[in-house]
Amino acid sequence: MKDLSVLVIDQGMIVDRIDYNIQNVATIVEDGLKQLQEKPEKGGMVMCATVLLIMCLVMLVLLILKEIIL
């Protein structure tokens, strides 16, 4: 009977650890969500537009070089 009580206690400790980890993960996810919401979206759009413009210029230069070489 002692073995069964030890197993029940061990199982209870495991369940407590799982509950503790779930609470920690929930807190971490909430903090991450707050950080994402605080991040300004304008900076990302400017970076995307800049990269797109640079890619277009590179393609234009390549097309011009292709016409000159051929």
Describe the protein's topology.
Blueprint: H1 2-38, H2 41-69
Domain T-SNARE coiled-coil homology: 1-39
Organism: Arachis hypogaea (Peanut)
Protein name: t-SNARE coiled-coil homology domain-containing protein
Question: Care to describe what's here?
Answer:
With 70 residues, this protein is mainly α. It has 2 domains: 1-39; 40-70. Helices cover 94% and strands 0% of the residues. The chain has helices at residues 2-38, 41-69. The longest helix has 37 residues, at 2-38. The model has no long low-confidence stretch (mean pLDDT 87).
Could you give a quick summary of the protein structure above?
The protein contains two helices and no strands. The chain is mostly helical and 70 residues long. It folds into two domains: 1-39; 40-70.
List keywords for this structure.
elongated; 2 domains; mainly alpha; 70 residues; 0% strand
Based on the structure, what is the oligomeric state of the protein chains?
A: single chain
C-alpha-based Rg, rounded? 29 Å
Low-confidence stretches: none
Helix segment tally: 2
Distance between the termini: 90 Å
Major beta sheet summary: none
Secondary-structure content class: mainly alpha
- Helical content stands at over 70%
